Amino acid sequence: MIIDGKGIAKTIEGELKEQVAELKNKGVEPGLTVVLVGEDPASHTYVRSKEKACKRIGIKSRKILYDADISEAALLAKIEELNGDDSVHGILVQLPLPEHINSEAVIHAIDASKDVDGFHPVNLGKMFLNEPSFWSCTPHGVIELLDRSGIEIEGKHAVVVGASNIVGKPMATMLLNREATITVCHIKTKDLAFHTRQADILVVAVGKSNLITADMVKDGVVVIDVGTNRLANGKLVGDVDYENVAKKAAAITPVPGGVGPMTIIMLMKNTIESAAKHARSK
Ligand code: NAD
Description:
Elements: H1 5-25, E1 31-37, H2 41-57, E2 60-66, H3 72-83, E3 90-93, H4 103-109, H5 121-128, H6 137-148, E4 157-161, H7 168-177, E5 181-185, H8 192-196, E6 201-204, E7 222-225, E8 229-230, E9 236-237, H9 242-248, E10 251-252, H10 259-281
Parallel strand pairs: 1-2, 1-3, 4-5, 4-6, 6-7, 7-10
Antiparallel strand pairs: 8-9
Helix pairs in contact: 1-10, 2-10, 6-7, 6-10
Bound molecules: nicotinamide-adenine-dinucleotide.
């Protein structure tokens, strides 16, 4: 089975549109503000996709653009202002930031109740404790993909390759919260194939094309390929040798059209949840 991330994201989009209509009936218009620093073309592309999704769903999106030489203090002052603005339900600072700005300080400055990216330590801590919070969008999207494809998580051996703060680590925690048995692999892992071959569910989030080949998986594995790599010929591929691994897999996500659309839709979901919370607290 090919796990159709694009199609699943479309279904969720329909659900979110209904939620937005209900909120608008109550006089609340969900609002997402994206702060973008510098000229990184990939960041601009990501932000454009997020703006388009907002438009389709009915979320008011605002983009604040800064030159790459903006000071950290000025950026922090803007975040403080957005934290206090009641019409802003979600604040997203597009990463990476220029080197002279401390990304951690910026993420920590965002009010956790508006951190729709789910990167703030309060949200990560709550997720660790399996308490309601904003979950990081990419791993949350993976959980939705599995659930909506009817793939059981409980009791399965899930192997996560990649251990970053934004994908691998929260992914492993979310799968653990769903009572999978977890192995987390990273750059220092010895004999990666030994671990990946044990996987019932294999999630790969590294950023290296062809890292996972067919000899590294068992028959019937479920493969979620988070990686995105641009080849010299312009083609976008994941971290998995899709063609050959797909022959052994019970289910697999394509790149593009797998995890990518889910990341954006989870951002929309978090923004709408934030607006709904805001409406309830009024
Ligand atoms: P990162 O660079 O922060 O982390 C990469 C991780 O991979 C690290 O933990 C590192 O130890 C591990 N790693 C590196 N080489 C390895 C190897 N040879 N074997 C095993 N582990 C290895 O990256 P990230 O931000 O977590 O992103 C990972 C990938 O996922 C990238 O390709 C990124 O573009 C993609 N991504 C996609 C989406 C999406 O929506 N589709 C969202 C976020 C990230």
